[in-house]
Design goal:
The structure holds two protein chains of two kinds.
Chain A (H helix, E strand, L loop, with lengths): L2 H30 L4 H6 L5 H10 L6 H13 L13 H36 L4 H15 L2 H15 L22 H7 L3 H38 L2 H8 L4 H38 L5 H10 L3 H29 L1 H5 L5
Chain B lengths: L1 H25 L3 E6 L13 H10 L4 E3 L6 E3 L2 E6 L3 E6 L13 H14 L10 E8 L2 E6 L6 H4 L8 H6 L13 H4 L9 E7 L3 E6 L14 E6 L3 H9 L12 H9 L3 E15 L9 H10 L2 H7 L9 E3 L22 H10 L8 E7 L4 H14 L4 E7 L1 H7 L9 E7 L5 H9 L16 H12 L3 H18 L2 E13 L3 E2 L23 E2 L2
Helix pairs in contact in B: 7-8, 9-11, 14-15, 15-16
The chains are: A mainly alpha, B alpha+beta.
């Protein structure tokens, strides 16, 4: 087996074990939170009889091990149960809301890499100069304020005082795009509607930027720190003494080895954005899975809590596997360490 | 590298301009409003405010509350007669569902059977109905288990569904009726309503458009399309309204935000007469088991300060001064000018007559964690009772915990703050659940009241078949509840909605057009939206 395939297989097995552990943990935690899910779901006017009927329907009066048995049996059939929050199958909710969050996080991830890494490179290249100081200050600002603060600030600046961007939603009301993939940026192109694509892109800019700002700062700071360290390496000094152009040294010789730690952090940040997107989604009325996840936790919607956490965990694990594979591709030492002894 | 970036920027700007133009051209006739909770469009599950807005627009009921007055008027029904135990309705024969099927008595029977079988939402309102029968296609007869005079009022919560469509779309389930069409009706509408569903995303928005075949016709100025959005943040709503991208905000905005919107030119719409803010005292727990102590706390409560705390502007408030246990406008309510006022001297006299001394107890004042306003009232009460020399502790309780704890009197706090509404607009659905001894121990009844006179008047209110008889029963009940003070009657609740000047909503701005039922003011066909 090739080293990369061996690494992938290892990671997949570990991920499966982690997912089973997460499912057991979240299944138990969801049932420990105070409050009767049936009572919360049926609302304040529900009678004791209605509550008792729903509890029986949800097997809530059974032992937790028996309940987990029912859950696993349903999951094996691809059924995550009915959400008490939306009264729809949890799988249908996830299928509808996950693409919205993934689209937001992917755009934020692209911004994080596309803005954060170049800022880090420039900062390292011009270290000690005004540009470096400015980038470090901006990066620090990005890291030090949570994304929901940026969301409110950006909304006020660029949607309220300067109405350049839309305030809420994924696309203007005047467009009706039939979902194909659930990713509006993709679906609009599938339908060949360039205007709608522009409109959807216009809608994603502010929320994605608010979500990405912290990661941009983090990526820039890390890349700068790693590159500054790399600049002290003898082979860089040699390149400089040979008269290689500064840009080439930065982009080719200093950046690539510095990318590995940055990539690890970017991967973690990217996955964490799935969960952290909640407040940004709430502020920009973005109908995503993070907002749904928090709503179902507050309503103690057991099926939806477990389903949402499992999907977010699976996505987190998937992103980590991709990052591990990228790092292995970039670093032959890691790649070849997967060879059998 | 610079050229492609420049091209991208130009493309983005162009698409922005195109999008803006498209939106501007299509904005006329669209009503945009929001609610906090997700919208439920299945009539057998619907229960809260957002659901009510949907129900009153995509479905119809046999009767409707009379605008600006008490009582009910025929709607899908032409007329009815009843003796308190059996009610026979003659139906209109010109009503069609959005499917094109004609509405008949079979649909009414099916709607009731379905609601009872699903057993969720407001189905408890029909637990007393023994059976419904279709006598002929336009006659339906309801037989109740026991006499229940407000039955006609309950029918405003029985949306009529299209039996044929539901039967064609039964989902997975056991028995002949399988899931009773719940999977289908949580995503589609099958009503006769003035509006029909275009799309429904329970977390994002429900889009509705006019039903051109509506049996009453729909005036042209009514919105062509209505977009009910869910879960918008206060900051988002404020920005949307300020930018002219939203028409009516939900009542759940903080008063400060409503005030800011009003300051920015938004009109304020109101809905009142269906509920009140109550501070409920656990009558089983010392010192609340002594009526004098309860009266002392009622007299010491600063009603005027409470009203100031919920004022939005100088003229509009989220509540009106209370006159007693029953909100003004309902059977048995005291006149609007007999408002309750703080009387510290009377409070001190009652406290002196109480068998418990202030130094012997510490009051536990709870507030529901999801309702931050209640914390302010808890602090107000703490200050008020400190003037009597009474110590108190404030306890924050999440709703779920509160609903569980009140199931036992020993776990129920001395004082619980609650907003309670009459779901049918009738005082029975407000008061019976709160004060009848058989209903003690629910979230509505943490008083654990057990008073024979109160029970008698509540039962009389249910069985009296004339308006005069009901007025008499509820007046006597109101007087008795003031006498034994199981509750501090804080204020009559009034919902306030900030709205753009694009819309006219007579049912929420003109008391003579008000329905006296939560959510019915949002009957879109009676609104006007400027192009």
């Amino acid at each position: 087996m090739k080293p990369l395939a061996r690494l992938l297989a290892k990671r997949l097995v570990t991920s499966l074990i982690v997912l089973i552990g997460v499912s057991m943990l979240i299944f138990a935690i969801a049932r420990i939170i105070p409050g009767d899910p049936a009572r919360i779901a049926l609302g304040p006017n529900a009678t004791q009889e209605q509550i008792a009927n729903l509890r029986a329907e949800l097997h809530l009066d059974d032992n937790i091990v028996v309940q987990y048995g029912y859950f696993i049996a349903d999951v094996a059939r691809g059924d995550l149960g009915i959400s008490l929050y939306t009264n729809r199958p949890v799988t249908a909710d996830i299928a509808q809301y996950l693409p919205a969050t993934l689209e937001l996080v992917l755009v934020a991830g692209i911004m994080m890499v596309g803005i954060g890494l170049p800022l880090g490179i420039w900062s390292a290249r011009w270290r000690g100069r005004a540009a470096d100081n400015l980038i470090r200050l901006v990066s620090l600002l990005g890291v030090s304020a949570p994304s929901f603060v940026w969301a409110v600030i950006l909304m006020l600046l660029f949607a309220f005082y300067l109405p350049l961007f839309p305030i809420a939603g994924r696309i203007s009301d005047s467009y009706a795009i039939a979902p194909v993939s659930g990713f509006l940026l993709v679906d609009t192109l599938i339908h060949g509607d360039v205007r709608a694509f522009g409109n959807a892109a216009w809608h994603v800019v502010l929320p994605a930027f608010a979500l990405a700002l912290s990661g941009i700062g983090q990526a820039a700071r890390l890349t700068r720190a790693n590159m500054v360290e790399t600049y002290d390496k003898p082979y860089i000094e040699m390149a400089q003494s040979y008269g290689f152009p500064a840009r080439r040294i930065a982009n080719h010789y200093a950046f690539r080895p510095s990318l590995i730690p940055s990539l690890t952090i970017i991967g973690l940040d990217f996955a964490a954005m799935l969960g952290n997107a909640f407040l940004v989604e709430a502020i920009f009325a973005w109908p995503g899975l993070s907002r749904y996840g928090v709503a179902v936790i507050l309503r103690k919607d057991l099926n939806a809590i477990v389903g949402t956490v499992l999907i977010i965990s699976a996505t987190f694990l998937l992103v980590n596997i991709i990052v591990d594979l990228l790092i292995a591709l970039l670093n032959p030492r890691i790649r070849y360490s997967q060879r059998p002894a | 590298m610079v050229a492609p970036l420049k091209s991208l920027a130009v493309a983005a700007l162009a698409s922005t301009m195109l999008a803006t133009t498209t939106l501007g051209a299509l904005a006329g006739g669209v009503l945009r409003l929001d609610e906090v909770a997700v919208g439920e469009i299945d009539p057998a599950i619907a229960s809260d405010y957002a659901d009510s807005i949907l129900m009153f627009n995509i479905y119809d009921t046999l009767v409707l509350p009379i605008q600006g007055g008490p009582g009910h008027a025929p709607h899908l029904a032409k007329s009815w007669e009843g003796d308190g135990t059996t009610f026979t309705f003659k139906l209109r024969d010109d009503v069609k569902f959005v499917s094109g099927n004609t509405m008949t008595a079979e649909d009414v029977v099916f709607s009731l059977d379905r609601m009872k079988a699903v057993g969720k939402g407001l189905s408890y309102l029909f637990a007393n109905v023994d059976k419904a029968e279709a006598i002929d296609p336009t006659t339906v007869k309801f037989t109740l288990k026991t006499t229940y005079a407000p039955f006609v009022a309950s029918l405003v919560r029985l949306p009529i569904v299209d039996k044929k469509v539901v039967m064609e779309n039964l989902g997975e389930g056991e028995g002949e009726m399988k899931d009773w069409g719940t999977a289908y009706l949580t995503a589609h509408s099958a009503g006769t309503g003035a509006y029909k569903i275009v799309s429904h995303n329970p977390q994002e928005e429900t889009v509705m458009e006019k039903n051109p075949d509506y049996f009453l016709g729909i005036p042209d100025p009514a919105p062509d399309t209505a977009r009910l959005r869910y879960g918008l943040e206060a900051a988002t709503v404020r920005t949307l309204i300020a930018q002219g991208e939203h028409d009516i905000a939900s009542q759940w905005l903080p008063p400060e935000v409503i005030k800011a919107l009003a300051g920015g030119g938004a009109q304020l719409l109101t809905e009142s007469g269906t509920g009140a803010f109550y501070v409920k005292m656990n009558t089983t727990k010392p010192p609340m088991d002594d009526v004098n102590c309860r009266l002392a706390f009622s007299e010491a409560f600063d009603y005027g300060a409470a009203i100031k705390m919920i004022a939005v502007t100088d003229t509009v408030s989220q509540g009106a001064p209370s006159t007693g246990a029953i909100p003004v406008g309902m059977f048995g309510a005291n006149p609007a000018d007999q408002v309750l006022k703080r009387d510290l001297d009377a409070a001190k006299q009652h406290l002196a007559a109480c068998k418990y001394k202030p130094e012997d107890f510490t009051l536990e004042i709870s507030w529901i964690a999801e309702v931050p306003l209640e914390e302010r009232f808890a602090l107000l009460m703490q200050a008020n009772y400190a003037e009597l020399g009474v110590k108190s502790e404030i306890r924050k309780m999440p709703w779920a915990l509160f609903a569980e704890q009140v199931s036992k009197p020993e776990n129920t706090p001395h004082m619980s703050q609650l907003f309670v509404n009459a779901v049918t607009g009738d005082p029975d659905t407000l008061l019976y659940g709160m004060y009848h001894s058989s209903a003690a121990g629910t979230w509505q009844s943490p008083e654990y009241l057990n008073d024979a006179e109160v029970d008698k008047q509540l039962d009389a209110g249910r069985t009296a078949t004339t308006p005069e008889g009901r007025e008499e029963a509820y007046s006597a009940l109101n007087a008795r509840l003031m006498e034994i003070a199981p509750t501090i009657y804080g204020y009559d609740r009034q919902a306030v909605f900030a709205a753009s000047d694009r819309v006219k909503v007579p049912a929420l701005s003109d008391p003579s057009k008000a329905f006296g039922l939560d959510g019915m003011g949002f009957t879109f066909r009676l609104m006007e939206v400027a192009d």
